[in-house]
Amino acid sequence: MPDLGVNIGPLKLKNPVLVASGTFGYGDEFKEIFDLNTLGGIVVKGISLRPKEGNPPPRIAETPCGMLNSIGLENIGVERFLKERLPFLKELKTEIFVNIYGKSIEEYAELASILKGVEGISALEVNISCPNVKEGGMIFGADPRWASRVTEAVLKNTDKMVIVKLSPNVTDIRMIASVVEEAGAHAISLINTITGMKVDVQSRRPVLGNIVGGLSGPAIRPVAVYMVYQVVKAVDIPVIGIGGIVSAEDALEFLIVGARAVQVGTANFIHPDIACRIIKGLEEYLYANSMNSINDIIGSLKT
Amino acid sequence: MIKDIQSTIVKNIPVSNDTHLLALDCPEIAKAATPGQFLMIKVTDGADPLLRRPYSISGIDQDGNMLLLVRIVGKGSRLLKAKEKGEKIWVLGPLGKGFDISERTQFHILIGGGIGIAPLLFLCQFMEKRGIKYIFIMGFKTRDEVIPADLWKLNEQKILISTEDGSIGFRGNCLQLFFNYLNKIDLENSTIYACGPPKMLNELLIIPELKSIPAQISLESRMACGLGACRGCVIKGKEGYLRVCKEGPVFSSKMITRIE
According to the model, what pLDDT value does residue A138 have? Predict the structure, then answer.
C-alpha cells in the first residue's frame, strides 16, 4: 500500500486531501453519505465573531465549467459553533481546520483568542480573501500591510498552527505570500475564488443578489495551479493548493507543482463523496507508477 | 439515508408540449423517498454544466421506478430530455423536508400551477394508496400543457383542471378555481398543499383564510449542493434566511410573507 501521509509543518495528515471551507458546511451534512474519517482534514465553514446573515439571494449562478457564489459568509458565529458544531467534529478521526473571518484586526485577534486552548482544532485557516463581504474581507488579502497585520494578530493570540488563505484577486500573489510568511504564518492555502459577475440580458440585471460573487470550479484550475506554482517558489512554508479540483488527476497537478496538500471545494457539491474518490485515485496513481509515497510526487515538476 | 447512485433511465417520454416524464431505476432512493422531497440530478458527466439540477419526485411507478417531470426550460433540462432509455445518470437523494400529511384534518386540497404539480402528484399517489380524502386542482396555460394524470392512475373524479384560455376544464387559473370551490368546503378541517410559480403562491399567501389554516407550500431555488452545506439556495423567511434544500422545499405559509 503506498503511503499518502503528508506533513504540513508539525501537523501530520493521513492523506493530502482536505475539503475546503464553505463547501462542506460543518461536516455533519455529509456524514450519512460517506465515512468522514477517510479525509485528510475538514476545513469548516468560515466563522465570524458574531452570527452573519449573509447576502440576499440569488446567491449562486452557473457559469461555463464553474459557478459564481455570493453567500457572504453566512454563519452561526463562533459561540454557537463551539457549542453546537465542534462536539461532532471533535469525535472524528480527521484533522479539523477552523476557517476564521473578521471585519477588523481586532476581530481576528478576538476570534483567535476565543479558540485558543480549545481541543479538537488542528489549525486555524485565516480567511483574508473573501470577495463577498463589503467590510474588510478582500482588503486584508489585497494589501500586504494588512495581510501582515492580520497574520501577526492571529499568531499573537493563538496556540494553534496558522494557515493564511490567500486571494487570487491581487497583482502579485508572491508578494502577499512573502509578507504572510514573514509575519510568521505556518502555512499558506490558495486560491480563494476569483471575483466575477454575470448579467441576465433579458432583465439587464446582475444574476447575483450581491451583484458580484466568487468564481470557483474547474474553470479556475489553471489560474490556481499557476499561482500555487509561483507561491511555492516564493516561500519556504508549506502551501496547500485549492482551485477547481474534481479528480485525482487535478489534485496531482497541484502536488506536482509543490503543494503539500490540496483542498477540494466546489466538487463536493457535485459528488458529495468526491474527496474520498480522489484519495483512492491518488493511491491508484502511486501504485500504477510504482511509487511508495505521495511525498515523491510533491514538487516533482520537471521543467 | 441519502444516496448518490448512478441510475438507469428506464423511460423518457414527452407528456405535454414542453414536459418529459422520466422513470429512473434507483430503488434505494425510491424506497426512502416521501412526498415533497427532491433529487439532485447530474444531467451529464463532466464539467459543463457543472452543477446538479434539483427535481421534485413526482411519484413511484408500479415497478418501483422513480418518476420525474422535466419541463424543458434551459440547458440542463434540454440535456435530460435528450437522454435515451438505458442511459445512466447520477441521482442524489432523497433530499429535503417533504409534506407533513396532517392526520388531524379530514380533507386535503392540493393546488398545482403548471410544472408545480410535480411534487403534488407524488403526494396524491401517496394519499390515494392510503384512502385519504383529497381533491387536486391543477392549472395550466392551455390544453397542450396539460399533463395527463392517468399516467399516475389517479381517481379522475378528484382532479379539477383549469386552463387560462379555457381550452379544457375551468377557464382561469388554478387559484380562481380554488376560490370558486372555497365555499363548498369546510376549510377549518382541511389542509392546503400548493406548488407553482411565485406569482400564484404570492396570491395564495395573502388570502385571509391562511392566517388560521396555514398551507404547505413547496418552493424551488437554484441550488448547488442540495444538502444544506453551501447555503446557496436560501429564500427570505419571516425570521431570516431559510434553506430551500434543508428547511424546505416544503414550508408552512406561516414562515413566509412573500416569494421573490
Answer: 59
Where residue A134 falls among pLDDT bands split at 50, 70, 90?
low
User: Taking the alpha carbons of A73, A78, A83, A89 in that order, is the dihedral positive or negative?
Assistant: positive
CA–centroid distance for B88 within its chain: 23
Taking CB atoms and an 8 Å limit, are A246 and B47 in contact across chains?
A: yes
B151 pLDDT above the threshold of 90 = no
**Spatial separation of the C-alpha atoms in residues B189 and A237, rounded to whole Å:** 68
The per-residue pLDDT for range A147-170, each reduced to its tens digit, is 999 999 999 999 999 999 999 999
Q: What pLDDT is stored for residue A132 in this prediction?
A: 54
SS3 for B231?
coil
Clarify whether A130 is annotated catalytic. yes
Nearest in space to B2 (alpha carbons), one of B49, B47, B39, B55: B39
β-pair partners for B12: B22
Tell me if B241 and A57 make a contact (CB, 8 A cut-off). Answer: yes
Select the residue from B79, B91, B234 to test the A interface by mutation, using most A Cβ atoms within 10 A: B234
Angle at which helix A221-234 crosses helix A248-256, to 10 degrees, equals 30
Note whether B164 and B141 are within 8 A (CB). yes
Q: What is the signed CA dihedral for B184, B218, A77, A31, rounded to 10 degrees? A: 130
- Partner residue facing B4 (CB), from A45, A66, A271: A271
CB contact under 8 A, A272 and B236: no
Give me chain A's average pLDDT, please: 95
Which pLDDT score, from 0 to 100, does residue B164 have? 94
Q: Which of A24, A45, A62 sits opposite B49 (nearest CB)?
A: A62
Q: Do A60 and B235 touch (CB under 8 A)?
A: no
Number of A/B CB contacts below 8 angstroms equals: 100
Closest Cα in chain A to B46: A65
DSSP B176: H
pTM here?
0.94
**3-state SS string for chain A:** CCECCEEECCEEECCCEEECCCCCCCCHHHCCCCCHHHCCEEEEEEECCCCECCCCCCCEEEECCEEEECCCCCECHHHHHHHHHHHHHHCCCCEEEEEECCCCHHHHHHHHHHHCCCCCCCEEEEECCCCCCCCCCHHHHHCHHHHHHHHHHHHHCCCCEEEEECCCCCCCHHHHHHHHHHCCCCEEEECCCEEEECEECCCCEECCCCCEEEEECHHHHHHHHHHHHHHHHHCCCCEEEECCCCCHHHHHHHHHCCCCEEEECCHHHHCCCHHHHHHHHHHHHHHHCCCCEHHHCCCCCCC
Chain A residues with beta carbon closer than 8 angstroms to that of B47: 65-66, 217-219, 246
The ipTM (two decimal places) reads 0.92
Residue A107's pLDDT is: 93
Cβ pair B2:A32 closer than 8 A: yes
Cβ-Cβ contacts under 8 Å, A56 against chain B: 236
Q: Which residue of A has its CA nearest to B227?
A: A29
- Min Cα distance B22 → chain A (Å) is 21
